[in-house]
Amino acid sequence: MTADEQPSEAAPGVTDAASGAAGAQAHEHETPQAPPRPLLAQDWRRLLRMGAVGATAQMFLALSNMPLRLDDRLLIKPILSFGYLSLLFVPFVVGNRVGHQIKREGIPTHAAGAHEVIGGAVAGAVAGAGVSLMALLLANFDLREPLVNWSPQLADLLAFGNSTGFAVFIWLLLGGLSGAAGGAMRLLRPRIRRVAVTMILTVGLISVMETLVTDLAEGMRFEWLTDRVYARRGGVNWNWALILAAVSGLVSVLARGRVRRTRERIASLEGASRNRANLGLIALTGALLVILPMFTGKLTNELLANVGLFVLLALGLNVVVGLAGILDLGYVAFFAVGSYTAAVLTAATSPRINPELPWFVALIFVVGITGLVGLFIGAPVIRMRGDYLAIVTLGFGEIIRLLFLSDWLSGWFGGSQGIVRIPGAGIFGLASVDGTDPRAVFYLVLAFCALTIYISWRLERSRLGRAWMAVREDETVAEAMGINTVNVKLMAFVVGAVLGSFSGAIFSAKVGSVFPNSFLILVSIVILVVVIFGGMGSIPGVIAGSAVLIGVLGGPRQPGLLAEFSEYKLLIYGALLIWMMLARPEGLIPSVRRSRELHQQEMAQDAWLREQLDEEANGGGSLRASAATS
Amino acid sequence: MTCTMESTGAGGGATAAAPLLETRKLSVDFGGLHALDGLDFEVREGEIVSVIGPNGAGKTTLFNAITATVALSSGDIVFEGGSLLGLDPNKVTARGIARTFQNVRLFANMTVLENVMVSQHCRTRQHAFGALFCTPAFRREEAEIRERAEKILNFFGSRLVGYRFDQPAFTLSYANRRRLEIARAMATEPKLILLDEPVAGMNPVESAELTKLIGRLRDEWGFAIVVIEHHMDVVREVSDRVVVLDHGTKIAEGVYEEVSNDPLVIEAYLGHGNENS
Fold it and tell me: Which pLDDT value is given to residue A626?
């Protein structure tokens, strides 16, 4: 394998300039041409500023009690716990950012050198000084009254069990080292950096996702391996961490460029072969999703089912927000209506009417009723635009919840008692799907996800979908182009409501009870964050978004992979959202529309120029000809 | 397609063909400002009318009033013998009036083809059901929409076709954006097109080409056209008739040569001679 790779590395030109990998290598060779900066010619002001930001972040994190809470969670036994990592990654990031330099025309103005390491160390030490200051303050003042996390335990944690003086010293040092490491990442050549990042990520992911991996291991019968990798009380054993790093590094070296080249080859396909590749990918993903849960334990399936529920919700909201551009902050209302309708129609314990319909029959009514509710809420709401519309939907979301909670309707919906003992979803008498069997729930959710994806995919490529996009782009013009914007937006609202009701119906069957408290405004916000984070208007993006946010961090009530983070989930949501808006506003996996904008522009211009030149050569050229005749 | 609606005029007894569009005592007020003040204005089948006048004369307000984007204070607008009062903008478009915008307003993130396809909305009817089940009727209509869009874009020569079909509209050059706006207006299958400064920001070559195109729009597609324009050479080239607005009223009307020598017009543009009048 290595022998096969060798020539292309030795002579990048051989692999044709068109391939991106070769292009990257060419850049790599250009880098040393620029001279490194002198060691002390630092932008001190910037270092201080970045360091101060890092210090503030660390103090905030310390006071949020995250380090203490997560200290039990060992990542690499016995070296690193999640708690310390949550503090130490800050100077690392700061150090790395400090080394960031502006590239002119794609060529760095300076080669990275010791300059970056020193800068990173200084900024990291300034950031670390935040923790040192924290340790000093903790030792000398008692601010427990306003700051609940101001505890001796925190002081102890920061001092590693030693004196305050040691804490002050060690955090300056650790911050400096971490910052220097961050800065040093800039020194590495891209290829080596990739290997390093792969190693860190592999060990990180394997230790962070311990529950998932052990669960998978039990299903697939390789516990013998995981029992060795993980320490008994959590965390990867340090020797295994090294082995994992070595293995992943080796794999990364061997696979160098291959993954990317394959991806680029798929991306460069056109027409029928592109479609075939896409179909293949979809089929592969589908097959994986069907087969994988057979080998995973309850925990993972529960997680997958939760992710699926949010995928359903997010896909529904995606139609409203991503396609039609209607900012709906009260989407939970439809989730609630779907859940309650299903509960009332299927549960024997429903207070007023209890027809005890089979789930699938009830689903027809659920869809109809939620659609009607969507129509009734939408009719007044969508006459508004922009911010006003968002605020009104927010209001309606709350109104629906308060209605279910109210004494007035408690005769129907049980008020705060909710409706309990809801039977599972019967599938044509074959099986009954309820919360006790998360695997079955997942398959049910998966089926509805497939249905929802199909619906949004078809609608996006229809007359209606185009009208939605036009309304999103410019409502006034859409109206002037003959689109009845009120109808079209209402349609988006209703489609969104119906799609949301699917997950509502599944939710009530899965959980077995519905309470008004399950439909807080927070759910709306989380779904919206999922859509924005994943990429508005992009189906794969929305799926990836809920996998990351709901699967890893957890939903409003559902625990994620990192159950330890449940208290800090919203904090991390917020931080992620901010970072996303700054670094990648189009989302995790942007819609084709958006990514196309970024790449093909230059190619198109070249093609246009070529066209013009051809025309000129073929006598006259269109520009001159038209000028002459007019 | 042209000259088929002539007999449907409201004033059936009139000897000449009834106008396609007629505004009667049209007034639009913005607070105390009379943007349009009792304007009588008409367009006949297959006619190209230029509307000129100094800034703030009410030209764009006239377009907005016709397409129902601003509310009338008084007066009436009659199109093919029926009043347009109280209609939503999309209904006006459905009746057969299309427009372009002074500051180009394309659906920037949609492709060139999609821009034209979406503008056929009011002439097509397949809804969610057809799309979901991919019915034969749906597929047929989609193919028709696409075919018509390509035909319209082909009208502009090689500029908006081929690989350009799938380019997002925001990548187009300024002149091409103006062309696409016209293509989009054509896609609504109008009888009357309102062009708001179609050559603004174009270079002389492009401007001359578009002037020719406006003539072809009428000759080949049979649209009646109203053009707001500041470039007098364009106005001279295209118009059958020129209407001059100032302070919301019509101060002159006629063929270009008449209007351009009218002292009132010269005064409105050059703004002196106040002492005399």
Answer: 45
Pairing of strands B74-79, B21-30: antiparallel
d(CA B166, CA B182) in angstroms, rounded, equals: 18
A463 inside 8 A of chain B by CB: yes
Structure tokens of B65?
A: 């009033």
CA distances from residue A367 to A207, A343, A374, B272 in whole angstroms, order as listed: 43, 13, 10, 70
- Angstroms from B240 CA to nearest CA on chain A: 17
For residue B276, pLDDT over 60 is answered with: no
Q: Which positions of chain A have pLDDT values less than 50?
A: 1-32, 620-630
Q: What is the pLDDT of residue A7?
A: 40
Q: Enumerate the domain spans of chain A.
A: 1-7+37-187, 190-261, 297-519, 600-630
Residue A3: its pLDDT value, please? 39
Which strands make up the sheet holding B241-246, listed edge to edge?
Answer: B97-99, B192-196, B224-228, B48-52, B241-246, B249-254
What average pLDDT score do residues B214-239 get? Answer: 91
Interface of B with A in 180-239 (CB under 8 A): 184, 187-188, 205, 208-209, 211-212
Report the alpha-carbon distance of residue A441 to residue A507 in Å, rounded: 9
> Which long-range contacts link A149-152 to residues 24+ away (Cβ below 8 Å)?
A149/A62, A149/A63, A149/A64, A149/A65, A149/A68, A150/A63, A151/A68
Q: Residues 6 or more apart from A574 whose CB is under 8 A from it?
A: none
Whether complex ipTM tops 0.90: no
| Partner residue opposite B163 with nearest CB, options A459, A593, A604 | A604
User: How would DSSP label each residue in A319-340?
Assistant: IIIIIT----S-THHHHHHHHH
Q: How far is CA A490 from CA A193, A211, A483, A497, in A?
A: 50, 44, 13, 10
The domain B21-276 belongs to what CATH superfamily? Answer: P-loop containing nucleotide triphosphate hydrolases (3.40.50.300)
Single out the residue of A229, A244, A205, A210 nearest to residue A73, CA to CA.
A210
Q: Which of B69, B58, B68, B155 is nearest to B116 (CA)?
A: B155
- Asked if B171 is an interface residue toward chain A (Cβ–Cβ < 8 A), one would say yes
Instruction: Give the best residue of A457, A481, A586, A630 to mutate against chain B (max B CB count within 10 A).
Output: A481
Nearest CA in chain A to B115: A470
Dump pLDDT digits (tens) for B5-56.
433 333 333 445 678 999 999 999 988 888 999 999 999 998 999 999 888 8
pTM of the model: 0.82
- pLDDT score at A451: 94
pLDDT of residue A11: 39
Residues with Cβ within 8 Å of residue A244, at least 6 apart in sequence: A202, A203, A206, A229, A236
* Residue A614: predicted pLDDT: 63
pLDDT at A542: 92
- Please indicate whether, in this complex, the C-beta atoms of B212 and A629 are within 8 angstroms of each other: yes
* Higher local confidence (pLDDT), B272 or A79: A79
pLDDT given for residue B14 in this prediction: 40
User: Which of A458, A465, A627 faces B208 most closely, judged by CB atoms?
Assistant: A627
